[in-house]
Amino acid sequence: MGNEICNGQFLRRAAIYVIVLAISSLFLTSVLVAELELLKMKYYQDDENNIKLSFEYYSQLFKYSN
Questions:
Q1: Is the pLDDT reported for residue 2 higher than 60?
Q2: Distance between CA atoms of 21 and 27, rounded to whole angstroms?
Q3: How many other CB atoms sit within 10 Å of the CB of residue 10?
Q4: Is-contact 11 5, C-beta < 8 A?
Q5: How far apart are CA 19 and CA 45, in angstroms?
Q6: Rounded CA separation 9/16 (Å)
Q7: How many Å apart are CA 42 and CA 36, to the nearest integer?
Q8: Which residues cross the membrane (predicted)?
Q9: CA angle 46-47-48, nearest 5°?
Q10: Which of 9, 35, 41, 61: disulfide with 4, CB 3.0–4.6 Å?
């Protein structure tokens, strides 16, 4: 172990692990953000459809009540 630290092998390996960990965490974060954006778009789309349906329902109800 002392020999590895002296010639920099340990530090090089640790730096590679840190770089790989940083890249993989960035990738996973971007995937999670993309999933959240898709969920948000779906939520807003559902909300918009519900507003349209309720508007059509109440307009039909108003039309038949008169």
A1: no
A2: 10
A3: 14
A4: yes
A5: 39
A6: 11
A7: 10
A8: 14-34
A9: 90
A10: 9
